[in-house]
Each structure stands twice: as C-alpha cells, then as structure tokens.
Amino acid sequence: MVAIEKILQGSPLDAARLITLLESGDPAGRQALKALYPHTGRAYRIGVTGPAGAGKSTLVSRLIGGLRGRGLTVGVLAVDPSSPYSGGALLGDRIRMQAHAADPGVFIRSMASRGRPGGGIGRNVREAALVMDAMGCAVILIETVGAGQGEVEIAGCAHATAVVSVPGLGDEIQAMKAGLLEIADIYVVNKADLPGAEELAAMLASLAAGRRSGPKPPVLLTVATANQGVDRLVEELLALRGALEADGRMAARRAADEWGLLREIVMEMAARRLFAESPGLARLREELGRRAVDPYTAAERIVAAVMGRPWD
Ligand SMILES: Nc1nc2c(ncn2[C@@H]2O[C@H](COP(=O)(O)OP(=O)(O)OP(=O)(O)O)[C@@H](O)[C@H]2O)c(=O)[nH]1
Ligand SMILES: [Mg+2]
User: Fold this and answer.
1) pLDDT per residue over 13-23, tens digit each?
2) What string of H, E and C letters represents the secondary structure of 43-83?
C-alpha cells in the first residue's frame, strides 16, 4: 500500500518508495498518483541543463541554499548524475553537507534515463515531479546533462529552463545552439572565474537578441564554487515565474506538460495491451518467423485486433 497521507505530509521515505514504484511501471503507483493529483499543480519546476562538468550540480546545491534562505522547500531531480547528492549538497562537500544534511525542506532523487522498462524518461521525470509537488516542494530543480534530444524532452517537463555553459567549450556551445539554447529562459555562464567568460556571455547575449519570438533570455555569470552570482540567479528565476504567470506562458507550459504526460501514459498502456500474450499473437509470431507474413501486415493485424478497427 502506498501511504498517501504520509506523502502529503512530506515524508521523504514514502515519497521515495512511490517514485521507485512508478519507475518500475507498477499499476499501484498509478493508483497512488490518482489520489495525489488533486494536491499537485503548485510547484515551480526549473530545468538546469548543460554540458557534462559545467558545474550544474554545484550550482544546484547553491540554488538550494538560496531558495531555502527564502523559506522555500526544494525538490531536486538529478537525471543521470555522475556525482551523487546528499541532503542538499554534493557528496564530498563537507561544509554544505552540514548545512543541508538534516534539512527536512530538501528532497533529492536521482534517476537514470537508460535501461528503463515501459516508458520514456519524460514520464518518469514528470511523475517524480508530481510526487514532489504533492509532498509540498515549492520549487523542483531538474538537473540534466548534455545537449541532445533527451534533454530537450526533459526540458519539456520544466516550467523554466536555465541553460548552463562554461568558457572554453567552443564546439559544445555550437552543438548546443541548435536545440538547447532555443529552449533557454535564462543563460548561465558558470565558471566565470575562468578566462573567456565575458566573451561567452557576449556571444550568448547576441544569440538572445537574435531570438525571433518571446522575451530575450538574460545572461548571468556565476561562480558556483564560490557562491558568486547565485543570489541574482535565484532572484531571476523567481521573477521569471511571475513573468510566465503574467503573460500566460506558465499556463501554456503546464498544459503542454500535462498533455505530454497523458500521451506517455497512453503509449505505455497501449504498448502493454498490444503486446499482451495471446494465442493470436503467438500465431502471428510463428508466421512471421516463417516469413509467411511481412512485418507491416503483421503490425496492422495486431493494431486492428486490439483497437477494434483497421489502422490507416
Ligand atoms: N573554476 C570553477 N570550477 C567550478 C565551478 N563550478 C563548479 N566547478 C567545478 O567543476 C567540476 C564539475 O562540477 P559539477 O557540479 O559536478 O558539474 P556538473 O555539471 O554537475 O557535472 P555532471 O553532472 O557530471 O555533468 C567540479 O570539480 C566543480 O568543483 C566554478 O564556478 N568555477
Ligand atoms: Mg551533476
């Protein structure tokens, strides 16, 4: 049994259990989310994304400090983390560990995007975010690495996206331009203590100025290790929330996110149903093995049988 009441009271243990259940695709997890759903819809989800080693985790640890300092509870979802978190700090950072380790206002969860049965990473991220929302996290930080399609998919689960880049990654910035930079609401140049930060910031500012639609993303410089520029970033992220709410983008993004989750649930349910073992399916597999039928005709037969009508 999933302890709904305990999750609503913010129990990290019960929330973690439910997220594990949801990751495994257990129907009990879905039942629990039905009960929790009316208690969700309040959290502000912020994607923090960028190339490996850009300092995202260090920055997220600092953001936790800044948000907690403003009395906000924080959830963190780290997708494919290479350095583990503990209680609001990167493992190994003793001072910050002491600061957040016992803080009940911080909930952290890691998640692997590869090798997961029955569903894309988008659904897992969205469901974990819903659980954190229900347990009372006011802000949810979603850390993802890279510059590929997966990150754009995860960014679709966030209400706002901060794209982190660092000086000295010429080629990666080029690669990021296409996808990630387009979805950024805020550009962060981290490791601003290193040479080339100003040039990178200028390049991003000109990129922002060239955007065809929507507000131009601000460019902020940070030194996460020294906690510099982080307070300004927190202010910008919170101000952004107000701006998104005021001009209707928040409502549109929430709606798109809900629709994205629904699509993923339907796909998963349909896939299960389509491939549920049956004598007909076994027969078809046998026919396919003998090349008595081609895969296209076989696929049409499965879909037609399950959906109750021929497929076009
Ligand atoms: N010089 C400098 N180093 C930094 C800064 N921020 C982070 N680092 C260092 O950069 C390294 C990577 O930091 P992480 O926070 O683990 O980076 P990440 O982007 O989360 O890395 P992945 O999760 O592996 O993609 C660590 O050694 C940090 O101490 C910064 O502002 N300046
Ligand atoms: Mg990291």
Assistant:
1) 999 999 999 99
2) CEEEEEEECCCCCHHHHHHHHHHHHHHCCCCEEEEEECCCC
